[in-house]
Amino acid sequence: MAEVYDIFISYRREGGFETAQLLNDRLVKDGYTVSFDLKTLREGDFDKALLERVEQCSDFLLVVDKNCFQKTLEGNLPREKDWLRVELAYALELKKNIIPIRLKDAVFPDNLPDDIKDVPRKNDPGYSKNHFDAFYEKLKSFLHSHPRVTVNGESNNVQQHDLKIRCDIPCSVYIDGELIGDTFAGEILRIPLEEGQYFLKCKSRAYPGIAIDEDIDMPNKTMVRKFFLQQSLQKEREARGKFMVGGVEFQMIYVEGGTFTMGSTPEQGDDAHETEKPAHKVTVDDYYIGETVVTQALWKAVMGDNPSDIKGDDNCPVECVSWNDVTQKFIPKLNCLTGRSFRLPTEAEWEFAARGGNKSKGYKYSGSDDINEVAWYWKNSGDRILKGTDYDRDWKKIRNNNNKTHPVKSKKPNELGLYDMSGNVWEWCKDEYGDYSGDPQVNPRIDSEDQGGGRLRVCRGGGWGYDAKRCRVADRLYDARDRRGNYLGFRLVLFPSLPQEEEKKA
Predict the structure, then answer these.
(1) CA gap 65, 501 in Å, rounded
(2) Nearest to 176 by CA among 150, 197, 145
(3) CA dihedral 121, 126, 129, 134 (to 10 degrees)
(4) Which CATH superfamily is domain 158-236 in?
(5) Which of 39-53, 65-79, 325-339, 490-504 is most confident?
(6) Burial of 352 (0-12, 13-18, 19+ CB in 10 A)
(7) Where are the domains of the chain?
């Protein structure tokens, strides 16, 4: 049977070879299979074989000497020939267990290329040539792989390994239909298995209808399987974000909390207004936000009427609704019908989601730098594309072109799968309108009083009759809380608590 490698050692020959050789010898002696000696790859398709070994491994050891990234940063070496960079980028893409072995005077530069900039810097066992044995014992505690099973000191043809499963939600684990055990969120369950083919099922205990089925091959595909139930978690989040009211289904999208720069970031360029300054750090918690703005169909299902000025397609955004209409009439009734606690997004939650959350690619508009890909605005929302480079607030001209709202989800979504956060209709936010502070903030909200206070409320996202500048993710507008217009709509937010948790709060 062809050799399968559970540890991959990546290094620069000029500065890291000696340490890599030492590591290889010690690991092999202890029964691990290690991909190290490039001479074994000199024949055949070198680059393909190299990447296959990265695919196989559970652990990726990166020997970092003081000049490790010099060739990469100088740019004189083509990427396809910069093998350390290629190996590391592929290991990051596959989410391998990357362990940096940092030699004396080695540092991680701040200006690494995007494909390797996320190399872990903390998962370091602390290399010491003079105290190698202590370092080596700590290194083994970081490994996900295990040595071969040996009999009388000789390697056995049959290898035994631990299948490692870490569930993000409470799950029951089955192998070939047999219940093996239960695991809790964040807990690692180890299952000893000999080489062979197995069928794995992980079934959510909180939501029994959600399960992930997976064929595993031990060890031909992987020596030790570290199975993260991201798909299961995503399915659960999707299931918890689906709602049906009066026969109308709407989807809430899970947004993992994080820290971002709010306001006039560099990609906004000269279009940024003074009201977007100063740019400042903001941290928000996890939440759900509407995949789309609230449609006329959903409003009718909840309220029984349709206040919109631009009718004809119930999948178009509801508009001509004031902040008061939304917060004092629609949302309380929706919460009564669903038993949940929907609300408007804060301005920070809205901008974080519009920028793509933790998946943000730094676009000017929500999901693209090309506004026509993601937004309905004054130039493209009518019967013909309007000409000119300057925004012309000639409403008669726009009306004559039959400019109007368009059905949701008819443009490209952003990084989180959210539609129309640029263009179509402006979206009410919960916050009162106010100036930014340059201080870092956590879950900021400006709201002196929901009932009666704060006459001016924030609107975000731009609209069908507005300039491209107004559709940027950082742009801000405000309107009176009792204002109704065919350019004003809204999107919902929901906290990601379990149903039973919300019942306790109630």
Answers:
(1) 50
(2) 197
(3) -150
(4) Immunoglobulins (2.60.40.10)
(5) 325-339
(6) buried
(7) 7-142, 158-236, 241-494
pLDDT at position 160 is 52
Q: Are 344 and 492 in contact (CB under 8 A)?
A: yes
Going from the C-alpha of 23 to that of each of 7, 30, 282, the distances in angstroms are 11, 11, 43
What distance in Å separates the CA atoms of residue 339 and residue 500, rounded to the nearest whole number?
11
List the beta bridge partners of residue 196.
Answer: 218
Distance CA 216, CA 196 (A): 8
Which residue pairs from 193-196 have beta carbons closer than 8 angstroms and sit at least 24 positions apart in sequence?
Answer: 193/160, 193/161, 193/162, 193/163, 193/218, 194/158, 194/159, 194/160, 194/218, 195/158, 195/159, 195/160, 195/161, 195/219, 195/220
CA dihedral 251, 254, 259, 262 (to 10 degrees): 0
Q: Which residue has the higher pLDDT, 270 or 37?
A: 270
What are the C-alpha distances in Å from 80 to residues 7, 36, 61, 89?
23, 19, 20, 11
For the stretch 248-264, pLDDT in tens is 999 999 999 999 999 99
CA atoms within 13 A on the CB side of 308: 27
Which residues are 254's β-sheet partners?
A: 288
- In degrees, rounded to 5, the angle at the alpha carbon of residue 201 between the alpha carbons of residues 198 and 203 is 165
Q: Which residues pair with 97 in a beta bridge?
A: 59
pLDDT, tens digit, 9 for 90 and up, residues 274-307: 999 999 999 999 999 999 999 999 999 999 999 9
Tell me the mean pLDDT in the region 139-152: 70
CB atoms under 10 Å from CB of 494, counted, come to 22
Task: Please count the helices (runs of H) and the strands (runs of E) in the chain.
Answer: 13, 24
pLDDT at residue 80 is higher than 60: yes
Cα separation, 423 vs 381, whole angstroms? 9
CATH of 241-494, one of 3.50.30.10, 3.90.1580.10, 3.40.50.10300, 3.40.190.10: 3.90.1580.10
Query: What average pLDDT score do residues 9-14 get?
Result: 90
Choose the CATH number for 7-142 among 3.40.50, 3.30.870, 2.60.40, 3.10.50. Answer: 3.40.50
pLDDT, residue 225, reads 37
Contacts of 443 (CB under 8 A, 6+ apart): 283, 284, 285, 346, 348
